[in-house]
Amino acid sequence: MAETFTFEDESGQSLSSVARLDTLVTVVDGANFLTQYREAKSLIEAGESLGEEDDRNVADLLVDQIEFCDVLLISKADLVDDEQMGELKAVLRTLNPDAELIAMANGQVSLDKVLDTGRFSFERAQLAPGWLKEMRGDHVPETEEYGISSFSYHARRPFHPQKFHELLHGDWFGGKLLRSKGFFWLATRPQFAGQWSQAGGIAHYGYAGMFWKAVPESRWPDDPEYRGYIMEKWQEPFGDMRQELVFIGQHLDEARIRQALDECLVSEAELLAGKQAWASLPDPFPVWE
């Protein structure tokens, strides 16, 4: 929705020329959200699709709307007991730490909470998701009462593609993985960054782009601030090539997940063998285009 305010027509006009985006409001079904989020239903299965070619799923749609809103309205609050409401609020707060949470009964909400609030900001919206705050090192306070925690994983050597593929398709050590996202680096594709995104029962991975290490410096952005950002991530001998993943969930075994990821990294011998040897490692990931 917010992006439509930036689109210009043939005359150079956009919605922002005639209207102000004041507040992004998301309404969450308090009685059914956690069940819908953890299921892996497609929008077609849920009867909410825009047509037969709409391949989106409920979890992705929910998390997109939650992570970028300013106000979260929880409907049917009168149908949920205190324990369920506490868990729901804890999950929502982890996904979007900055949104105002308002529980509603019979759809009642004070208008000054959703109209003319002045809360919306494009810059803030881009930085709002809980996973992004965790990745930047702005740790989101954990809601221990409901076992919700978050952590980030970083490494400066590539994953063995076969081992990492098996991990992604395996059992995530119990608990409930609510949200995970980030970038990964495969030994067989050293110049490319892979992207991982999971919400509820749905996960995706694929091509994210090229690491700056693989791009001639003459083709880097001229903007000093952007170059500074690149160098903040730089560490020889591999430059900005790295693993950078964030995990948010309930009752997660962080130590086991970290250990499993570490075991997916190439061994010391494989690392020293170099990129030419890495190319011969088995790689079950699809071709990236």
UniProtKB/TrEMBL annotation:
Signal peptide: none annotated. The keyword Chaperone applies. The keyword Chaperone applies. Gene3D superfamilies: CobW-like, C-terminal domain, P-loop containing nucleotide triphosphate hydrolases. InterPro entries: CobW-likC_sf, CobW-like_C, CobW/HypB/UreG_nucleotide-bd, P-loop_NTPase, Zn_Chap_cDPG_Synth. Keywords: Chaperone, Hydrolase, Nucleotide-binding. SUPFAM superfamilies: Hypothetical protein YjiA, C-terminal domain, P-loop containing nucleoside triphosphate hydrolases. Residues 148-265 form the CobW C-terminal domain. It catalyses: GTP + H2O = GDP + phosphate + H(+). One of its GO terms (molecular function) is hydrolase activity. Pfam families: cobW, CobW_C. Zinc chaperone that directly transfers zinc cofactor to target proteins, thereby activating them. Zinc is transferred from the CXCC motif in the GTPase domain to the zinc binding site in target proteins in a process requiring GTP hydrolysis. Belongs to the SIMIBI class G3E GTPase family. ZNG1 subfamily. This is Putative metal chaperone YciC. It comes from Halomonas chromatireducens. The gene is yciC_2.
